[in-house]
Structures are given as structure tokens and as C-alpha cells.
Amino acid sequence: MSAIGVIFWKEMTDYFGSRRFLILFIIICLTGISVAYLASQNLQNLSLLPVEFTLLGFFISSAGALPSFTFFVSFFGPLIGIILGFDAISAERSRGTISVVLSQPVFRDSLINGKFLAGLVTIAVMFASIFLIILGLGVWTLGFVPNLAEISRIGVYYLATVVYIGFWLSLGILFSILFRRTSSSALTSIMMWIFFTFFIYMIANVIADQVVPVPAVTTPEVIAKNEAIRRGIMRISPATLFEQIATAVLNPSVRAFGFVTSAQISGLLPTPLPLAQSLMIVWPEFVGLIVLMLICFAVSYVVFMRQEIRSV
Amino acid sequence: MDWIVEINELTKVYNGVKAVDGVNLRIKEGEIFGFLGPNGAGKTTTILMLLGLTEPTSGEVKVFGYNATRNPLEVKKITGYLPENVGFYEDLTARENLAYITRLNRIPSEKSSTKIEEVLQLVGLLEVADKEVGTFSRGMLQRLGIAATLVKEPKLVILDEPTLGIDPEGVEQILNIITKMGKEEKITILLSSHLLHQVQRICDRIGIISQGKIVVEGSVDEVGRKVIGGGTTQIQAQVSELNPALLEAIKKIKGVEEVEASGNFLNIRCNKDLRLEISKAIVENGSFPLLIKTQDYTLEEIYVRYFRER
Description:
The complex is a heterodimer.
Chain A: H1 3-17, H2 19-41, H3 43-46, H4 57-60, H5 69-85, H6 90-95, H7 98-102, H8 108-142, H9 148-178, H10 182-211, H11 220-234, H12 238-250, H13 262-265, H14 275-306
Helix pairs in contact in A: 1-8, 2-5, 2-8, 5-9, 5-10, 5-12, 8-9, 8-14, 9-10, 9-12, 9-14, 10-11, 12-14
Chain B: E1 3-14, E2 17-28, E3 32-36, H1 43-50, E4 58-63, E5 66-67, H2 72-78, E6 79-82, H3 94-104, H4 109-122, H5 138-150, E7 156-160, H6 168-183, E8 188-193, H7 196-202, E9 205-210, E10 213-218, H8 220-227, E11 233-239, H9 244-252, E12 256-262, E13 265-270, H10 275-284, E14 289-294, H11 299-309
Parallel strand pairs in B: 3-8, 3-9, 6-7, 7-8
Antiparallel strand pairs in B: 1-2, 1-4, 4-5, 9-10, 11-13, 11-14, 12-13
Helix pairs in contact in B: 3-4, 4-5, 8-11
């Protein structure tokens, strides 16, 4: 087995054996089950979707005060990535294990590659089990077998989820490399999370209103311009990207985002789109999410390769 | 003679400061080499460059003929390294930690389990092998660190401050293990430390580094003569009766540079070991030598003398 493989397996066993993982996993499973259960109690909500896609409703419908599963993932999913990544390197440093590992015949990048892969696989396994729980609950309550279109949409959504959480994992790893102290790394990661999920809305609104003020009486062009700027800024946030992907993939009736004039939708047939067409809508977002994750990882990689190993 | 470590004009600059400045060093097979110097003198930086963990600004390092900067993997395959403040995965047992290291070295598992047993025995941790490392004391961690350098059957072991922050009993154990490694297992050892009497006890040769430069190198005795005596030998003698004629006679011996007398003790500085001639002179002048010996140099003296003069 190559050095990456050895480190990968070691990290995997660490993740799956840790208390941290167990707690996360229980919380997530409970969330998934309760959301799916409440959605099943509220089946009339599911009728928003074309009837052949009823199963997708379990992921996007919200029941009463409880938000949908998709919202939970986009909002709290980052915490999972951060928790798995924030001490990846800094803990090795503070424990003094990093020089022991790197003085073995392994390339330096094996350590960070192994850790990143192990984190990603952990996330994939974690979400695969939640998705299966929700699917199972859905099939059980609805009483019919999911069709291929539903399964493929859920599969794409699953991939997007793993990439999205993977982005936060690589951000956590990046901070664990940049900061010597685990606590600084954790705090900075949390700060980024708060920024991208809360403040980006406010900032986008403020900037859009500053650049293109919308007076009380106005033309659709001004509103459209204002909206375009707001959306442009929001796109920086991986949470926004993920939410758009989720909306387009899980709701086959969604055709466009943002400001749409009535001329654009006149004569539209209210039939569900095929998956490929839905993907076309959010293709840039999907690519953007993958690129964000890879950029974060690439920066970690470069910084780590040039960093001093000395533990003091 | 084959040098297994060759360091040539090695220089490392950090933010414009020369941490290591043109170091030249040779280590031969099977010796225990003591690498001494105050904190921040450049010991650890030199060691990191030796393992290819830090890139030198200029100069080169060769370990068993492999260039450590360009071919660090080959060097790390045959070199065991005990870092300063070594640490292990606290939720794994001692045995599991060592097993992880053998896997990183691609040692087949049927071979590694006996090897792990063997090194744990050597460092005296066999009874606690299945305890989590989190419960270990500093001294035990350090011994586990030494075990970790040995599981890969290295040809060279580098120990960075192996006895720092350890109680005297622990230090004793560690020094015994190191001597055993060197003498019985025939492993070449590079030992960095600033605890002098320990180094003196176990090292064949020493090199002193200060402000990034190797200032003196050789066996403890050679270094002592160079630094303290200015190249001379000190002889101390005690005589039964001290008389002026005796003093004159000793001064006249060829090679004697200076004689000092206090009570019936004589301190004689000469350019070589003249004990025979001196005892003869003492007897011929109606006295008896009660004691006559060349002075031993302790590393502490050398060190203090050297760094006071700076």
C-alpha cells in the first residue's frame, strides 16, 4: 500500500472511531429522520411537485416551523466539514506527531492528500446513510418504488452535497495549516461560515442598493439591475451555489432563477424538465462549487509544501 | 575511510538571518557523534536539512551518498529521527503507534510485529505496549520515540535533545539505550544536546556549533586541548617536599612552558605529556611524587571556556 493509502486508512479509522464523529452522526441522522417524518405528515405540501417526483419532496418540503432537509444541509452542513477539517494539521503539529510522520519515507503531500481524501470519504459515507434513511422513509410512507428519474436527481443532489461539505472540509484544512493553534483555526472557520451563510445576504443587499438604488416608483429595468448585482455578490457564497443546485435538481419545474419578466414565461408549458435540462440551469453553479473546493485544497497544498516543519 | 554523513558548506537563511552558516561536518560509520551548542545555534535546522525536511539555501548534505535535498525518501528510509518534543497519537497504544510507522515504511506486517516486540523490549516499554500513549510520562514518550526510530532498522539515527525535560533516572535509561544502540546494534548515532556531561559519557566525537558555525570538532580530549590548553597539556603533581631546586629542575625540562606551585602541589603546562621526565626530576631533587597526572578535560569546562571567550 502506498503512503497515501496508509495515511488515508489511519485517518478513516480515526474519524470513524472518534466521539466527535459519533455525535455528529447521531445529530444528523436525527435531523434527517425528523425532517423526513414531518414532511411525510404533511403530504399535501408534496403536491407542489409534479406527481411523478413526489419522493423528491422529502428533501425540499418544509413542515410547519421546521425547515426543509436541503436548508438544514446548506446551513449546518458546513459545520460538519469544518469539524472534520479544522485540526487536521494543527493538531499533528501541537501533538508533535507531524515530524515523526514526515521523517518516515513519505512525500510531504501524502499527509495532506490522505487527510483530505479520508475526510471526503467520511462525508460521503455519512451522507449516503442519511440519504438512504430518508429515501427509505419516503418509500415506506408513499408506498411505491422510486422511479429512475427520481433516483438520478437524488444522486446528483447527493454529489452536490458531498462537494459542498467537501469545500468546507478543505477550508477547515486550509486554516489548520495557516494557523499554528487549533483554536484560531476553529474560530476562523466558524467566522467564514457565519459570513457566508448570514452576512453575505446583508452585504449583497447593501451593495446592490448602493450601486443601483431602487426608488419607490421605478421601472422593471432598475429592479432587474439591482437584482442582478445582488445575485452576483451572493454567488461568492458556496451556500448560495449549493441552494441553487438543490432547487434546480430537486424541483424539475424550476426553469430559471432571479428576475423573470412575464414576457419570458408566456406560453411556457408547465411540464417537468428532464434532468439534463435542469442541470443546464445550474451547471455554472455546480462547476463553481467544485472549483471552490479545489482552489481551497490547492492553496492548502501549496502553503503546506512550503511550510517549515519545525514544531516550535 | 567512509563518511556516511557529509555536510558541505551548508547554509540556511531565515528572513535574512543566517541560522546555519557554512557548516562542514563528517560522521563516520558506527560512531556516536555529539552535536553541541546553545539553544538557537542551528542544531535543529542542520538536522532538518539532513533529513530533507527543510531546503538549504546553499551547500549540500549527503547521507550514505544520497543527496538529502533531492532524494529525501532514500535518506528517510535508512535514517531514524527522534525530534525534539516528540509526540504520538494519544488514543492509540504504543504498539499501534509503532505499527503505523512500520506501515509508513512499507515493512510487511509479519516482519513488523516481531520487530516492534523487539524494540519495545529494548526501550523497556513491553509491559505498557498495549496502553494508550496518552497515559505515558515524558520519559516513556521519549523512549517510545527511540523505539520509533529503531523499528525501521535504520543505519543512522538522529536524536534531537533526547534527554530534555526528563528526570535523572529516565536520563540514565535513555543514555543506556543509546549506548546499546551504538555499541551492540552498530548504528551510527548523531546526538544533539546541550547537556554536556551526558554527551561526554557516550560520544566518540563531538562538534560544537555556535551562531550557525561549527567552531570546533573532534574527540572530547582533542577539543579540550584545543580550547582550554591552547594546544598544551596540563600536568598536576603532588610532591612530598617542595624545594626551589626541584622547581628549577622542572622548569629546565625541555617542553615545559610554565610551572605554578601552591602548597606541595605543582601545576605544570607543557607541550606534550612529560610525566616521565617530571617524576625523574622530582626524585633526583630529593623528593617523592605522591601524585602525578595529566588533567582531564570535562566538556563543561570546554564549553564554558569557549563561550565565555566569545
